[in-house]
Amino acid sequence: MKKTLLYLTAAMAAVIVFGACERGSVQIIPCPQEVKAGFGEFDFAGASFIIKGVEDPAASDYIRSFQALVQEKTGKVDGRSRVVFVHDASMAPEEYVLQVRRRKVEVRASALNGFVYAIQSLKQMMPLCIWGGEVPQGQSWKVPAVKIHDYPRFGYRGQHLDCSRHFFSTDEVKKILNLMSVHKMNRFHWHLTDDQGWRVEIRKHPRLTSVGGWRSGTMIGKDWSSDDHVRYGGFYSQEELRDVVAYAASLGITVIPEIDMPGHMQGVLAAYPELGCTGGPYEVWKVWGVSQEVLCAGNEKVYSLMEDVLSELLDIFPSEYIHIGGDECPKVRWESCPKCQAKIRELGLGNDEHFKAEDYLQTYFMNRVEKFLNEHGRKIIGWDEILEGDISQSATIMSWRGTEGGIKAAQSGRDAIMTPNSHMYLDYCQSDTPENEPLCIGGCLPLEKVYSYEPLLPTMTEEECSHILGVQANLWTEYIASNEYLEYMLLPRHTALSEVQWCNADNKDWERFCNSLKHMQQIYEALGFNYRK
Ligand code: ACM
Ligand code: ZN
């Protein structure tokens, strides 16, 4: 008796000392904020499911599909033990409480996302076959008693995917959305256009996809003078885009489309050469890098085309934010373009000690597109280059060239999302021995470095911290031409990202993470993902 008591005390102390996830089968990633071990186990085989007060059909559908999955896997229904889902209006939309007792599991949340995250945590405590594959003979469905109270550190928890440089099917995109859901992420940043291919159907301007969606070849490896002469491309129809948006929404994920402008637009110029400063001809770019051929900011037709594109997009993507790019826009063409220079004179722009007239012309471009989107009830996100000039106060800055852009944005009272290439560029190599890695863009970003990222600096004020909306990893696909390789570059770094986004800094623990990662790798396998071992 005394000995049992001693073990229990030791076990409880371990919970306090080692924190959340370091116990038995509770190896949840991202690690929940608060975990308390209970006594005994709950048997999911033959449990009844009850939903109380959940009125949002998306939430009840999600719960019902979990019920169907459990009942299909266990082969039993409607016994005496209960799994109860309760609407609790006192909770934040992404918060949940999950209590597993011997005879009852109770999940409390106030919205779809809370229920999704509770179920994802539950699934990570269940036998691996809940994720896929055959159920082994005599599989036990017992889950240890526990109480979890969980909520995210950051409201914006994103994963980006470039589908221009290489095109990925909606099936693969949905597979990645599933993975994001496992990791409690809520924003999918979909990079849909670039120099190397335009990927969204725009009904008013079909040449964007019929011409802009296809390149006549692609450079081979890192040889800029080479060309494989293989026609490459593709695009998403509006039906497909809507289907992906709806699928993401069912998982509590918002899709944020990016139309990268005014640079990274050679796909558009190939289709409509009159929109470039020189008039072309242009081709959909076959090499990687930053093209000097950009939209002519002095041509009114450019603004009408962008407004037409955005009008169709707004109808497909209900997101609060639309990403309008703004990165890497060389100004060489603008400097010698009569239309651009006339626009500069018309607007009274000039060089000053900070920036050149052409930088202010880009600001004019971005602010004008922002105004259009604001009038349609949306906000913009732009890459950190848009701070070079006087971008509006309401623009949200995505900090990619390190963290400076995000810090500067927060200091100036603008919102920011941190995606520094130093820690969040998943196209970088996963080790410092690139010769042992598949071809990648360069850089070195091992798992531990992703995990170590801390977006808030001790020198930041509370007000500045409140402008850091969250964190995202970016996956550019110049060198990533297959699903298998895409998944290899994502995993396991995407898993490390999830703890940067979700866990309070004092709840992160590299050793505990690595232990739980072994279990997560089994989940990758059950879900059919390739990953770096
Ligand atoms: C970027 O990586 N050019 C945003
Ligand atoms: Zn021009």
Question: How would the blueprint of this fold be written?
Answer:
Elements: H1 2-18, E1 34-43, E2 48-52, H2 57-74, E3 82-87, E4 96-100, E5 104-109, H3 112-125, E6 142-150, E7 156-162, H4 170-182, E8 187-191, E9 193-194, E10 197-198, H5 207-210, E11 214-215, E12 232-233, H6 238-250, E13 254-261, H7 266-271, H8 300-316, E14 321-325, H9 332-335, H10 338-347, H11 357-375, E15 379-383, E16 396-399, H12 404-411, E17 416-418, H13 421-424, H14 447-452, H15 462-466, E18 468-473, H16 483-490, H17 493-502, H18 510-527
Parallel strand pairs: 2-3, 3-5, 7-8, 7-18, 8-13, 13-14, 14-15, 15-16, 16-17, 17-18
Antiparallel strand pairs: 1-6, 4-5, 4-6, 9-10, 11-12
The structure holds acetamide (ACM) and zinc ion (ZN).
What does this structure look like?
- Helix content is 36%, strand content 17%.
- The protein contains 18 helices and 18 strands.
- It is elongated and about 80 Å long.
- Bound molecules: acetamide and zinc ion.
Largest sheet, strands/sense/barrel: 8 strands, parallel, barrel
Number of helices: 18
Number of separate strands: 18
Order of strands in the sheet with most strands: 7-8-13-14-15-16-17-18
Low-confidence runs (pLDDT<50, min 5 residues)? 1-19
Q: Spell out which ligands are present.
A: acetamide, zinc ion
Q: In percent, how helical is the residue content? A: 25-40%
Principal-axis shape: elongated
Structural class: alpha/beta
Please report which band the strand proportion falls in: under 5%, 5-15%, 15-25%, 25-35%, 35-45% or over 45%. Answer: 15-25%
- Rg is 25 Å
Instruction: Give the averaged pLDDT, no decimals.
Output: 95
